[in-house]
């Protein structure tokens, strides 16, 4: 049976790509990714949507005004620029180097994910792809972990204008701490992150015990893995956890961060995935046929990142790619084999099935908070509806059976039959 055609769009424009190329941690990566996707003629299968810079009001959906206003100050940053104490207060320094026109940079990057959300909301696409987004570490008051703006949270907030419940899935090798922090108390956004979790590995958060707080208890799910996790491990835990989360939460829309740094050979990762592991997860998500936004993220072996995101794009449009990389401007960077596939690690996966099953059991326990909460909510809603129905019946009966009745109390005559037959009581001396 042929796969159902997915109505999909691809967020791209020259300004978005140019600004993404200015990101210090992934300089020029955006152009390499775009060039490979174009070389495979995948653009011809997609509705291309041009983005516009996010408005100040859009950025304020998550970020504080004091942070955004500080970014506006950074207009010219050259080699002689000295990072000041105020820069460091806003996370600009060690891992988030300031660059010229900082505010323009973050507004353009956020604008890509806003365009993706709008494409879903307006029905332009069922799946919107924005490989220029996915910056999941940025916090409300500061930049963090190579991320200057949390376009993901802004995208989710836009989606919530139409979709009551949004499921966020993070496939990056690093824990999606910025998004989790944003929705730690929320029961309308569920965050699921599968990542490497080792002592000393950034950001140091994302244990299985982090499950949300107060009203958000049970709406955060973390799958911490040891280094070198391979396709078999990823497919096993994703297959077990994703469907349980989906069935418990019942989302109306899904946002996926497809950070490529869990691929084997990434210089900052430590994962051992290949394209197959990622695509299996994404296919599971697409099979739910929910409005979906696919975003980029980490990925510091640029050629492998381009291979992955081109492959996921092909998966969306149901195209099988040739293994030989087509000739294009960046073709020399795919040597020495010039093929699409990524070789798995030769080392041993340090995750054992017993540990994975224990983690899954804890996750199942955490998900009970959702089931119990939904049961209580349903019971409360039912009771409220019953009370409203009882009141309506009483009111209708009272109106139909009302007869003229006058009585005197405290020297005031109360007559409940008014001239216009409305529920108005006339007070007569």
β-strand number: 11
Radius of gyration: 27 Å
Question: Number of helix segments?
Answer: 12
Mean pLDDT: 90
Class by alpha and beta content: alpha/beta
Helix/strand order = EHHEHHHHEHEHEEHEHEHHEEE
Strand order of the largest sheet: 2-1-3-8-7-4-5-6
Taken from the alpha-carbon principal axes, the silhouette is globular
- Major sheet details: 8 strands, parallel
Distance between the termini: 83 Å
> How much of the residues is beta strand, in percent?
5-15%
User: What fraction, in percent, of the residue positions are helical?
Assistant: 25-40%
| Unreliable sequence segments | 403-429
3D structure, described in words:
The chain has 429 residues and is α/β, with parallel strands linked by helices. The chain is 39% helix and 12% strand. An 8-stranded parallel sheet has the order 2-1-3-8-7-4-5-6, with helices on both faces. Helix 1 packs across helix 6 (102-121), helix 2 (29-39) crosses helix 11 (302-316) and helix 9 runs parallel beside helix 10. The longest helix is centred in the last third of the chain and has 49 residues, at 353-401. The N and C termini lie far apart (83 Å).
List the helices and strands and how they pair.
Elements: E1 8-11, H1 14-21, H2 29-39, E2 47-49, H3 56-59, H4 65-73, H5 85-89, H6 102-121, E3 127-130, H7 151-159, E4 166-170, H8 177-182, E5 189-196, E6 220-225, H9 231-249, E7 253-257, H10 275-286, E8 292-295, H11 302-316, H12 353-401, E9 406-409, E10 412-415, E11 426-428
Parallel strand pairs: 1-2, 1-3, 3-8, 4-5, 4-7, 5-6, 7-8
Antiparallel strand pairs: 9-10, 10-11
Helix pairs in contact: 1-2, 1-6, 2-11, 6-7, 9-10, 9-12, 10-11
């Amino acid at each position: 049976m042929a796969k159902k055609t997915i109505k999909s769009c691809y967020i791209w424009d020259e300004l978005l790509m140019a600004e993404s190329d200015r990101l210090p941690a992934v300089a020029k990566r955006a152009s390499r990714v775009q060039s490979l996707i174009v070389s495979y003629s995948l653009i011809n299968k997609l509705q291309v949507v041009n983005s516009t810079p996010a408005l100040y009001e859009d950025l304020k959906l998550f970020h504080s005004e004091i942070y955004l206003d500080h970014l506006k100050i950074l207009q010219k940053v050259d080699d002689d620029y000295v990072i000041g104490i105020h820069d460091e207060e806003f996370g600009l320094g060690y891992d988030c180097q300031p660059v010229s026109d900082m505010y323009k940079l973050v507004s353009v990057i956020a604008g890509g994910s806003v365009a993706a959300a709008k494409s879903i909301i307006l029905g332009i696409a069922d799946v919107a792809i924005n490989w220029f987004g996915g910056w999941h570490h940025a916090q409300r008051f500061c930049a963090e972990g190579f991320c200057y703006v949390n376009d993901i949270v802004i995208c989710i907030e836009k989606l919530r204008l139409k979709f009551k419940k949004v499921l966020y899935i993070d496939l990056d090798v690093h824990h999606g701490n910025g998004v989790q922090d944003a929705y730690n108390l929320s029961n309308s956004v569920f965050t699921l992150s599968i990542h490497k979790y080792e002592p000393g590995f950034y950001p140091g958060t994302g244990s299985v015990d982090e499950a949300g707080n107060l009203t958000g208890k049970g709406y955060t799910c973390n799958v911490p893995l040891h280094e070198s996790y391979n396709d078999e491990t990823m497919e096993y835990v994703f297959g077990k956890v994703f469907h349980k989360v989906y069935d418990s939460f019942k989302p109306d829309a899904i946002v996926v961060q497809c950070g490529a740094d869990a691929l084997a050979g990434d210089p900052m990762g430590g994962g051992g995935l290949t394209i197959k592991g990622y695509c299996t997860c994404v296919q599971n998500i697409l099979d739910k046929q929910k409005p979906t936004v696919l975003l980029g993220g980490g990925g510091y072996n640029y050629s492998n990142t381009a291979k992955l995101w081109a492959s996921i794009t092909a998966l969306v449009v149901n195209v099988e790619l040739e293994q030989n990389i087509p000739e294009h401007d960046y073709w020399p960077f795919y040597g020495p084999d010039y093929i699409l596939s990524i070789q798995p690690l030769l080392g041993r996966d340090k995750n054992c099935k017993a540990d994975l099953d224990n983690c899954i059991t804890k996750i199942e326990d955490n998900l009970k908070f959702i089931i119990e909460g939904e049961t209580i909510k349903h019971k409360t809603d039912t009771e409220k509806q019953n009370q409203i129905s009882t009141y309506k019946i009483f009111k209708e009966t009272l109106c139909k059976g009302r007869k003229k009745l006058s009585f005197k109390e405290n020297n005031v005559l109360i007559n409940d039959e008014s001239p216009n037959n409305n529920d108005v009581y006339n007070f007569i001396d």
